[in-house]
Amino acid sequence: MPQQESRRDGQDEGGGLHSRLLAELGPAIASGGYPPGTVLRIDELEARYGVSRTVVREAVRVLEAMQLVETRRRVGITVRRTEEWNVFDPAVIRWRLAGSDRPRQLRSLTMLRTAVEPVAAGLAAAAATPGQCRELTVLAADMAAAGRAADLDAYLVHDIAFHRVVLAASGNEMFARLGDVVAEVLTGRTEHHVMFTAPDPAAVTLHIRVAEAVRARDAHSAEDLMREICVGALRELDILAP
Predict the structure, then answer these.
(1) Please, which contacts does 28-33 make with residues 24 or more away whose CB atoms are closer than 8 Å?
(2) CB 124 within 8 A of CB 118
(3) Cβ proximity of 181 and 112 under 8 Å
(4) Is 182 helix (H, G, I), strand (E, B) or coil?
(5) pLDDT of 10 above 50
(6) How does residue 15 score in pLDDT terms, banded at 50, 70 and 90?
(7) What is the structure's pLDDT at 5?
(8) Nearest of 6, 199, 241 to residue 102 by alpha carbon
(9) Which pick of 8, 40, 74, 143 has the fewest CB atoms within 10 Å?
């Protein structure tokens, strides 16, 4: 037992057990394994996951910041109602997409993209810096190259970067902060195979045309083209995750 405690202490200092507990407990809550109203006790979590009280408390603090749980004296750690969760937290999005409710989550997040990203693209056509315009052009070309090579990993990297630049180039700091949300949606689609085996050439062309519209300062076209991208993603979900 002393040897085991020594191992735990060493890992705690490196954050290994803290991260491991979050990686197990977070998805369990987000997927409904611990339904809202469930009371979790520190001693039970210690025994169940084989970690120290310090590790449990550190993990609970992170979950509290995400509003997944709340701690009350004499009650314990209570799983909060889903409506109270910070659903924009990238980790919460990742955990929910890993669960059985993935199709609904993807649809909800893609509808958010459809509401925000076209407007962001229109604003970017007016506010993007020359450097951002160049970056969009390069990223669209990189997406095209990765698409031709059917390299989904490279395509994902360039796709995420493209949408981050559009959101940032809008000049709206609220839109820019949604870059992490969009990144998790795109990553989740790829990792859980909720997309076609090769990038859609039509979607790639639309990204190129968005970059061209932003560079040409054509807000109307940039907005319409980005809306086509988002609506296309919704149609893809109808086929792959009905």
Answers:
(1) 29/63, 29/68, 29/69, 29/79, 29/95, 30/68, 30/85, 30/92, 30/95, 30/96, 30/98, 30/99, 31/95, 31/96, 31/98, 31/99, 31/100, 31/101, 32/99, 32/100, 32/101
(2) no
(3) yes
(4) helix
(5) no
(6) low
(7) 39
(8) 241
(9) 74
